Amino acid sequence: MEKFILKYFNLLRTIIAVLIGIVISVFLIFLISRDPGFSLQQFLLGPLLSRSRFSSMVEMASPIIMCGLAIALAFQARQFNVGAEGALYLGAAVGTGFAVSTAMPGFLHLPLTLLVAGGVGALWGFLPGLLKARWRGSELVASLLLNYVGYYLGLYLINFHFRDKNAGYLVSYQLPKSAWLAQFIPNTRMHWGILLSLAFAVLVFLFLYHTTSGYEIRMTGANEKFARFGGINVFKVVVLSQLLLGLLAGIGGMSEVMGIHRRFNWQSSPGYGWDGVVVAIIGRNHPLLIVAASFFLAYLRVGGQVLNLMSDVPAEMVTVIQSIIILLITAEAFLAQWRYRITVRQAESRGEAA
Amino acid sequence: MSAMLQSILSAQFGFAVLRVMTPLLFPAVGVAISGLAGSVNIALEGIMLCSACAGVLVSAFTQSLWLALAAGLATGIGLAALLGFFHLRLKADIILAAIAMNMMAGGLTIFVLFLATGEKGSSSSLTSLVFPLVHLPLVRRIPVLGEILSGQNVLVYGAFLAVFLYWLIVFKTPLGLRIRAVGQNPDAAQSVGINVNRTRMWALLLSGFFGALGGLYLAMGYVSWFARDMTAGRGWIAIAAASLGNNMPLGTFLSSLLFGVVNSLAIYLAPLAVPSEFIQMIPYVATALALTGYSIQAARRRRKL
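^ inputs. structure came back:
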């Protein structure tokens, strides 16, 4: 048992943090709601009980997975670029512009549109990366500022160039059918973009743990000086990790536009880039754990929406809970005492045996 | 165009610059003091938001400015203490912990606003208070300068005072000496008996104090209501302002003033026939450019050494 705890300590710690988060949300619901039993049931079971809600949970997880992978690539290199939000928004806006103003067969249109969005996103990740690598400027602050710039640029593009004036509100023209990601389960909104994001999770996993570049990224993150002395091109790592961040975020945003709305309809930024930060922290920057964390976050989100709709508790409760969870997970010393005691006891018993 | 130029060269423009600068200057001083101690507080965006919300709600429900001030300050300092606890005691990475806190602030303020008013957008249904305007005696008589300086919100003068206070703390008190020592070399500071963690905690608490004043001004002076995400990146711009100013009082003040001018220009340019998206982008683009220019400059200086 104790060996098991030591081996999976980080995972257990994460689970405990998540449980604490859920306990706090139960507490909050009982504090606020007039009918806490019903509200609680809606919150925890709501996302699972109907086909459409289950579907919205799965489709919501998709862009979150992409942004989580994106952020994880940068975080693995210890680059605090949080620009996934801007890269996703601007990438999807430009990608939409490309898709509605070109005509070609689907086998070209689909990948090219995703590539355009990814390329614009990559540029958005590259800029803070260059600033950091070349002049040691803060990639964190730069990426935060670029999030706003990307948002307004994207909004401008849609508003002034690709706006469908026949629609009653601010949306782009509809994408041509050749640029639609189709549904793989009929009568739901589950589209191929979801499988694409799962494929990307495997790709990023292979990249990080089975290629030289991935090793260099992790090495730089673990100890930059050591990496430098070991002959790793840190400049390349810093730029590449952030460029890939933007690429993945751009593709993630575009695939949601192509798979669900079929037009650009985000008047305000959808927040997936920030969700990406959350799942990267919960999944400790590991691509496969990020997939699990994304489904969990999407579950909480849809639960929050159901709660908002069916009861008197606002959906923003979920934001509070998720922040508490990641705060606990980032706290290195949280439960460290526990591990310490077990380690000492194990060492002592081994000493007696010998 | 010439009419616009005239309005930019007028005393009202100077007046506007001070108004716009204040919610940048307070958090910039907060970032600077925490940065000087070596643990940059990037949670000020969220701290300002929470303090603004607390101030508006308390003033609306008690109709007391003093209680609102106390609530806003307590919120800001309390959140800074929480950040300090997680970073210094629980060994959380301060950047990640601060990101979490900023996120929490965005949700928590809407959550609380909804519970208090039943709305999620703004507190416009409440009658909340604002801090009073002050007409400076004598100064108001000076032509142009009087028009710029007099008749501002009391917290605008508070922001100037904050810069002075910051200078006083850093250069004239034992705490300031410890803060500078800890920031420059924590190990050396430790070796002469300075408690590094306690010093950093003090710096964080002070940053929370200044950030809270920025938030209070924003919702109870700059405007007279609380709205969701009303800080709109001022906490981030403040980080850039503090680093442009090398975390020093005068430098931080001057770079905040610069950003104040740029942001006021953006407001004055709004009637131009340029898409509003571009006007709204100006503060962020200008800050990013300033940050880049500063980083290049700093890199050159390092190379010369």
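Residues 60-294 of chain A form one domain. The longest helix of chain A spans residues 106-135.
thumbs up if we can close this ticket
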